From TrEMBL:
It catalyses: a myo-inositol phosphate + H2O = myo-inositol + phosphate. Pfam families: Inositol_P. It comes from Pseudonocardia acidicola. This is Inositol-1-monophosphatase. Its cofactor is Mg(2+).
Length: 278
């Protein structure tokens, strides 16, 4: 029975269930711009958090406590445990793409991942605006609305569509802009949609050939990174809670997700453009 309880397929169903419930709840909330005191900032004036972020995370925690009593949760808004990489069993992001949500743009998502010893073993990413449900379990593949996902067979970086995102600090944004300026003449084009979870899922679905971003947190990629890996992507993440990754010249906090045919080329380009100093 205990084995069934921790089976990735079981955890996948729970992640999908609670993420879908949270997305349904989020759709029913009033616009954050209409709610008194509904918006505040965190690390900088551009790093926003809404009342919906905290309400949705509370719902996720409550539902996981009901379905998986006693299992620690690590989340964007409330943290969770003293040693998340060792202790956390669930990693949640109530709204990935909060600025999009604030402005009424549809590209935001709820993410829930089941983790064991700091590694994702199941996860779900749900888009409230579209209703799309992305899920994966370790060794069992990835799907979107039940359809299997597979990355592109791109093998020419010059013909590749690459996603990215930017940090909230002005100085770091300027450095990131210089890196993107160096990438633009080399790749087909760059996209910046505003939700890292959905961008990583877009690599899984073949809508992007690759994705590169500095400064993501564990909750940003815990579910989406597994979905991309199970769809065949090469996935390089910083490690749980920002733990330093192997010294590959990209920088300690880089997330790189790409089709296998361009992954090495995209990493080499990033190194050449000074990724480690971003």
């Amino acid at each position: 029975m205990d084995a069934d309880r921790d089976d990735p397929a079981t955890l996948r169903r729970i992640a999908e269930q609670v993420a879908t419930e949270a997305a349904d709840y989020l759709r029913g909330l009033p616009s954050p711009r209409d709610a008194a005191g509904g918006v505040r900032t965190k690390s900088s004036p551009t790093d926003v958090v809404t009342a919906a972020d905290t309400a949705v995370e509370a719902l996720l925690r409550d539902r996981l406590a009901e379905l998986r009593p006693g299992e620690p949760v690590f989340g964007e808004e409330r943290g969770g445990v003293e040693d998340p990489a060792a202790q956390a069993r669930w990693v949640v992001d109530p709204i990935d793409g909060t600025v999009n949500y604030l402005y009424g743009l549809p590209w935001y998502a709820v993410s829930v991942a089941a983790v064991r010893d700091g590694e994702s073993v199941a996860g779900a990413v749900v888009e409230p605006a579209s209703g799309r449900v992305w899920t994966a379990a370790a060794g069992a593949g990835a799907t979107c609305d039940g359809r299997p996902l597979r990355v592109t067979d791109a093998d020419d970086l010059g013909q590749s569509l690459v996603g990215t995102g930017f940090a909230y600090g002005a100085e770091r944004r300027a450095r990131q802009a210089r890196l993107v300026a160096g990438m633009l003449p080399v790749v087909r084009d760059i996209r910046r949609a505003g939700s890292s979870a959905l961008d990583v899922c877009s690599v899984a679905a073949g809508r992007l050939d690759g994705y590169l971003e500095h400064g993501l947190n564990w909750w940003d990629w815990a579910a989406a990174g597994l979905i991309a890996r199970e769809a065949g992507a090469v996935v390089r993440v910083p490690g749980p809670t920002g733990a330093v990754a192997p010294d590959d010249g990209l920088g300690a906090d880089v997330t790189l997700v790409a089709a296998p045919g361009i992954a090495a080329g995209l990493a080499a380009l990033a190194r050449e453009l000074g990724s480690a100093g971003i």
